[in-house]
Write a structure and sequence with these properties.
Layout lengths: L5 E8 L2 H13 L5 E4 L3 E7 L2 E15 L3 H11 L8 E4 L5 H12 L3
Antiparallel strand pairs: 1-4, 1-5, 2-4, 3-4
Length: about 110
């Protein structure tokens, strides 16, 4: 068996109620062990040749590389943006017990 790679996934939602609903859904489906709903932020970006600015609510999602494809699909299915930001970083180091908990929580969804 190969080692499980824990991931930290970032996405942004347009408001807190959508962010909370998505977070609940991802944890309920065991696609995420934990989702942090952060304080709102202001994002500035270029979209279709126009500079835009939007208030957003960031989510920090803890999962594994094995569950990432299903997590990404779930985010895309519920996300209101045409092209949402979904970025994943491998967690290179962390408290072993916590990382084992993440892996255990999402592996039960297989």
């Amino acid at each position: 068996m190969h080692p499980v790679t824990a991931l930290l996934v970032l996405t942004n939602l347009p408001d807190r109620s959508i962010a909370e609903a998505l977070a609940q859904d991802l944890v309920a489906q065991r696609l995420a062990a934990c989702v942090n709903i952060l304080a709102g932020c202001r994002s500035v970006y270029r979209w279709q040749e126009t500079i835009e600015a939007s208030d957003e609510v960031p989510l920090l999602i803890k999962t594994t590389s094995e569950r990432y494809p299903a997590l990404e699909a779930a985010i895309l299915a519920r996300h209101p943006y045409e092209l949402p930001e979904v970025i994943a970083w491998p967690i290179a180091h962390g408290l072993p017990g916590y990382l084992a908990w993440v892996a255990d929580e999402v592996s039960q969804g297989d």
